[in-house]
């Protein structure tokens, strides 16, 4: 097979997609395809479920998202110059770097650009473009929007801009055919754009449900989303019932004039290789000052804290303080939790510097002299003869747990 569906909405495109993931990958397998993408609207909620389900049936999962892009700043809450609040753009992770960048893009859409939808702008795309393949999306895409308005030169300018952001060979002009007259017009203009710019075409079907007969229940789902009745004339519809998982033969019949666009789907699929490892702890890297690595910086902070907490004393209650500190630091390093302690130290320090209530320390974390020296806890583990091993030891398989909540009286 030489066709891959690259524009796919699952049940995680809430109240818009009705394709259940397990049913979706099963259908793709039945059609003899070896890969499929997930490109839910603005979110990546379904990526892990999709990844696991695809792997289970021997299908390559291509991880992506159909994001919302504003032509202005993501911080501005107004309609853009094209007359739209945002445009669609399909992004696919080519590799692990691209997957990480895609998560950052989607997160920025929610934390910084939310206006009706989680939007990003070109500043975000330029910052996180590495490892990502972009498709121009459906009729709501930026390029298609200009073409629908009869503004070919603006569409060309947008296409070239997107190519410059993602790099040559990493941006494709998307053509679709769901029996909509507007798409026929846009597709012809996309061919012209391809000829004038050299940007390759890619053929997709905007999948929102698995089987052709699912069109009616999907229409009801849209009514729930928009608060309309099925009988209402003026409402959102997906006309024609063509938004299902089509076979390669059906796709070739739709685009006999652009068979390269069919072949390009498989070429893109072959390029997309993301591996997600499960059962492995992943701790963010803590940015340390220049001249230090994470462990040397943690050691420095602890040695400073040791002097602050115990003064010049070398031994307390029969315990050699430096030896205890070195033992704990070595254990923390060997178990891979150096960054974890620095992260906890950082936000506890921030809280205390800004008069945010923090508890004195509860549970097993209070048994650590490292925690005490970093002022994560305020209970002296030496004086109270608390055991570090109850908190952290080489036999422990789970992440250490530091309770930092303030006690309410």
Automatic annotation (TrEMBL):
GO terms for molecular function: 3'-5' exonuclease activity; DNA-directed DNA polymerase activity. Residues 4-71 form the Polymerase/histidinol phosphatase N-terminal domain. One of its GO terms (biological process) is DNA replication. SUPFAM superfamilies: PHP domain-like. Keywords: Nucleotidyltransferase, Transferase. SMART domains: POLIIIAc. Coiled coil: none annotated. Its EC number is 2.7.7.7. CDD domains: PHP_PolIIIA_DnaE3. This is DNA polymerase III subunit alpha. It comes from Candidatus Scybalomonas excrementavium. The lineage of its organism: Bacteria, Bacillati, Bacillota, Clostridia, Lachnospirales. The gene is dnaE.
């Amino acid at each position: 097979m030489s066709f891959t569906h690259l524009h796919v909405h699952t049940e995680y495109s809430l109240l818009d997609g009705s394709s259940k993931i397990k049913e979706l990958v099963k259908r793709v397998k039945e059609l003899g395809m070896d890969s499929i993408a997930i490109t839910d609207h603005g979110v990546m909620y379904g990526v892990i479920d999709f990844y696991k389900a695809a792997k289970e049936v021997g299908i390559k999962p291509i991880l992506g998202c159909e994001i919302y892009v504003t032509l202005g700043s993501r911080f501005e809450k107004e309609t853009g110059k094209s007359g739209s609040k945002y445009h669609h753009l399909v992004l696919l992770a080519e590799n692990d770097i691209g997957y990480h960048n895609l998560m950052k893009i989607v997160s920025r859409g929610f934390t910084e650009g939310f206006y009706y939808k989680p939007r990003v702008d070109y500043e975000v795309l330029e910052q996180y473009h590495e490892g990502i393949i972009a498709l121009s999306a459906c009729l709501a895409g930026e390029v298609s929007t200009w073409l629908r308005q009869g503004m070919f030169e603006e569409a060309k300018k947008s296409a070239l801009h997107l190519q410059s952001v993602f790099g040559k060979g990493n941006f494709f002009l998307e053509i679709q055919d769901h029996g909509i007259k507007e798409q026929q017009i846009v597709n012809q203009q996309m061919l012209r754009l391809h000829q004038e710019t050299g940007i390759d075409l890619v053929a997709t079907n905007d999948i929102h449900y698995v089987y052709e007969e699912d069109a009616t229940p999907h229409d009801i789902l849209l009514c729930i989303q928009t608060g309309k009745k099925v009988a209402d004339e003026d409402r959102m519809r997906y006309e024609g019932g063509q938004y299902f998982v089509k076979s390669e033969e059906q796709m070739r019949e739709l685009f006999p004039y652009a068979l390269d666009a069919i072949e390009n789907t498989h070429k893109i699929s072959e390029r997309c290789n993301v591996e997600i490892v499960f059962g492995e702890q992943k701790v963010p890297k803590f940015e340390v000052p220049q001249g230090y690595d994470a462990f040397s910086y943690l050691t420095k902070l602890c040695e400073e804290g040791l002097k602050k907490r115990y003064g010049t004393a070398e031994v307390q209650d029969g315990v050699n303080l430096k030896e205890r500190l070195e033992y704990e630091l070595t254990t923390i390093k060997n178990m891979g939790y150096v960054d974890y302690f620095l992260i906890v130290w950082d936000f506890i320090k921030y809280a205390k510097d800004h008069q945010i209530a923090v508890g004195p320390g509860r549970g097993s974390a209070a048994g650590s002299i490292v925690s005490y020296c970093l002022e994560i806890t305020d209970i002296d583990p030496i004086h109270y003869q608390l055991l570090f091993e109850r908190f952290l030891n080489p036999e422990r398989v789970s992440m250490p747990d530091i309770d930092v909540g303030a006690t309410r009286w």
